From TrEMBL:
The keyword Transferase applies. The keyword ATP-binding does not apply. It catalyses: glutathione = L-cysteinylglycine + 5-oxo-L-proline. It comes from Lophotis ruficrista. It is found in: Cytoplasm, Cytosol; Golgi apparatus, trans-Golgi network. GO terms for molecular function: gamma-glutamylcyclotransferase activity; glutathione specific gamma-glutamylcyclotransferase activity; transferase activity. The gene is Chac1. Belongs to the gamma-glutamylcyclotransferase family. ChaC subfamily. InterPro entries: ChaC, GGCT-like, GGCT-like_sf. Gene3D superfamilies: Gamma-glutamyl cyclotransferase-like. CDD domains: GGCT_like. Transmembrane segments: none annotated. This is Gamma-glutamylcyclotransferase.
Length: 191
């Protein structure tokens, strides 16, 4: 089984896997439109995390993880709690295209997508408003700023050819609000 991650799963999968591949899926755009009251926010101050929006001409970059044997039930149970129960995400099957030049056909992968029907869905807002909400939000997995910066770092270092205007516009808005914000390339050393 392959599982595609496009948010915090790219740096913190939290489950055992056999292999991982960087690549993309077509037909979706990544958006900071999902509220988070557990991992990156609270009931009082929900954080902003990403979901996917159907978008014919777009592609979203991330990481696909291959899980085998005994890894399958353990990873799916873990992800069901993390993404569906605590996050409000549904699962879908998508075609994942590995970044590798000699890659074979696309791989079918599970992906978690938060839809407007779930109670934590926040929907669109300006990049400045999203950045302002991220700045004040923190949950049991850490500060919402870390989530945004780690995702931007992943895109910069692992998918430099890809564009994600929404993500990088929010990062720019956050940095303009907090001009003294300082982070280094060491933020991805754990991956």
């Amino acid at each position: 089984v392959w599982i595609f991650g496009y948010g915090s799963l790219v740096w913190r999968p939290g489950f055992e896997f056999t292999s991982r591949k960087v690549g993309f899926i077509r037909g979706y755009s990544r958006r900071f439109w999902q509220g988070d009251t557990f991992h990156r926010g609270s009931e009082r101050m929900p954080g902003r995390v990403v979901t996917l929006l159907e978008d014919c001409g777009a592609c979203t970059w991330g990481v696909a993880y291959e899980v085998r044997g005994e890894q399958i039930p353990a990873s799916l149970q873990y992800l069901n709690m993390r993404e569906a129960v605590l996050g409000g995400y549904d699962t879908k099957l998508v075609k994942f295209h590995p970044q590798e030049k000699d890659a074979e056909e696309p791989i079918l992968a599970l992906v978690y997508i938060a839809t407007p029907q779930n109670p934590s869905y926040l929907g669109p807002a300006s990049e400045e408003d999203i950045a302002a909400q991220i700045i004040v939000s923190s949950g049991c997995a850490g500060h919402n700023i870390e989530y945004l910066l780690r995702l931007a770092d992943f895109m910069r270092y692992f998918c430099p050819q890809a564009e994600d205007k929404h993500l990088f516009s929010i990062e720019e808005a956050l940095i303009s609000i907090l001009p003294c914000l300082y982070y280094t390339d060491e933020s991805l050393e754990e991956t």
